[in-house]
Amino acid sequence: MISLPHISRAAIGPTLLGVLIVALALLVHPAPRPSLAPASVVAEVAPAQTTTGPLQGTSITVQWLDIVIAEDVIPPADQQAFANELEQALTYVSSRLGSGPSERITAYVGLEASCGIHGVAYTNERMVQVYTCSSLPRGRAVNILAHEFVHQLAQDRYGERHLQGDLILLEGLATWGAGSYWLSGEESFRAFVMPWLAAGTSLPLATSYVGRPIGDMNTLYYQWASFVEFLMQVYGRERFDALYVTGSSDPGSADYQGVYGKPLAELEQEWRAWVITSP
């Protein structure tokens, strides 16, 4: 899916999750390089559907979430369990990020008639959406919303500078923050991308996915998550937080030199060495 900076609907329209709406194929993470994200995250290609009017469906309220589930998406008997799973996902990603929501979040679960799956976040409006269908496991919607929740938490943590975040950091943080919901059994994003770097099939970090194959978008999201993991583990969270608010949307636009005393190219080489020497 196309993912734009998380800007309000009143600005340039919805932010679509770059969560890789690709054809469902692989069920495990193969070596040396998967062409798809874990099948637990993705399903078939779906149009860039969003809901801009009043939300229609069953409403369920949990601790931090106001959830609206459209008709014929989640069986009524399963809706409360699904709502609890979303709350658990929000608690999990809040713990990984180190900060929770500043206010309640609306989560809308819409019907995707073609039975694809995709998500969107309106972070200025505190709304996340996922589109799925009854024949897909509900866990996939939870996985996608885990990513979207992190986008909302990032705006809560960093303020409106989040809206202009360097795409490497913006989508990298959302993917990293989703953690086990995206790792398909791997212990870390470092381990997930290591086969790609070892095989020489990775992409430069400052690559835009616009106009590129879906497989490249998938690769970039996981590489960016691993790079975020590297920056936090090697240089610490304080520097990462300082870096996050310096971007201007384009991948590679953050002030790496000013924060780390090194350009992105040098940090990228350090990251690649760090990944390859993964224990």
From TrEMBL:
Highest taxon, organism lineage: Bacteria
Protein's name in the database: Peptidase MA-like domain-containing protein
